[in-house]
């Protein structure tokens, strides 16, 4: 299994990080793929195969840590691409929410 679990939706409260500038304040760190719970059940194949998929966005996936669980909020295509390259770790911005 690539991820810890596949989920549909965000179970955590709104965190207010919506713009790239908001997320840029969160430093990236290494995260194991098998510790992530996705917040989307579908993957846009065009995003996965696009060579410039990060051209207009953040280079790092966005992860929210809530109640000791890591939720992959944005960057599912990057995480799957990492797995396809047989890597188990990716660098992501991890926002910790107390709750």
From TrEMBL:
Stretch list, region Disordered: 1-23
Pfam name, any one: VapB
Sequence ranges of Basic and acidic residues compositional bias: 11-23
InterPro entries the record matches: VapB-like_prob
Protein name: Transcription regulator of the Arc/MetJ class
Organism this protein belongs to: uncultured Arthrobacter sp
């Amino acid at each position: 299994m690539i991820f810890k679990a596949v989920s549909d939706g965000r179970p955590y409260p709104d965190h207010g990080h919506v713009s790239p500038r908001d997320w840029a304040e969160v430093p990236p760190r290494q995260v194991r793929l098998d510790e992530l719970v996705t917040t989307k059940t579908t993957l846009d194949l065009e995003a996965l195969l696009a060579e410039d998929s990060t051209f207009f966005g953040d280079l790092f996936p966005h992860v929210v840590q809530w109640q000791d669980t890591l939720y992959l909020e944005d960057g599912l295509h990057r995480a799957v691409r990492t797995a396809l390259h047989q890597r188990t770790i990716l660098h992501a911005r991890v926002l910790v929410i107390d709750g």
